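=== RUN LOG ===
request id: a7f3
mode: sequence -> structure
chains: 1
length: 329
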Amino acid sequence: MIETVISRRSLLAGAGLLVLQAPLRANEAGAWPARPIRMVVSGPAGAGSDIFARLLAVPLQQALKQPVVVDNKPGANGLIGNDTVAKAPHDGYTILLSPSSAIAINPVIQPKMPYDAQADLLPIAQVGSAGILLVANPATGIKTLADLVRHAKANPGKLAYGSWGSGSTGHLVMEGIKAQYGMDMVHVPYKGVSPLLSDLLGNSIGVGFVDIASPVPHIRSGKLLALGCTGSARGPALPDVPTLTEQGYRFDADGWYGVFAPAGTPREVVVRLNQEINRILSTDEIIQKFAVQNMPRPPIKDADQFAATVRRDLAAWQSLAKVAKLRLD
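=== RESULT ===
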């Protein structure tokens, strides 16, 4: 038999090491951030989530005195980017900017979620609140929601519409419109807004739902027509574009972009990020830059208030998804 002899000296040395390690960990936490932060964006370059992430990243890195690196992870209606952050270390150095549809609708339509949106992602701050845009190529001759309904009903099964992915807000809204008006239209899901915009501009597809920001230059130039927007109000950059509610189809729920972190991220990091983001969102410069991108003045909420918004919207949007019978095989 082998006996292990532990001396009093070794015990005292070990205890001293533990005492020394504890303040080191505390000092490390207090020094956050001590290195660059990765901001994962669950959308492609040029999409709405990317636009607002980059508008936020520059002043955020100035406030934190560390680089904030935008990392685009598009695909599967935000599932890929969100999963990346859900599984990342909860040390405050990986955060997520995601649209509400990727948080709220995916759990309903995805048969196998690789993460739990409520348990694995921690809400930090809400970044904007707005609807989305229904647009058409001018060659279609479709200028309003009523035009779209007439055209689709006169040509059942012949008119396709695009969205930035199965389970996206655009997919959900159009399926509701189809159900209300008895329209037969084929859904074409794209891997993000950017390729959808390219096909809309080229008239490879005539109609589609896109985010609130990225199509604005094309609408102003006349290359695309905005038929209407969802949400509770018209967008500041396109004040002449009516809401769908104004045109007879009530859909006044606002979507949002939000910043999240992996569950378990230290509370002090969450509070610091929330405070810095809210301070940035309150500046005249960002309010004006958001307005140019068709985003109304962002609401200011602490992390707990945003978490309550997420819980409420999860229930509301998932209920709508079930009514529209959205489900992926």
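=== NOTES ===
The longest helix spans residues 8-30.
The first strand starts at residue 37 and ends at 41.
=== END ===
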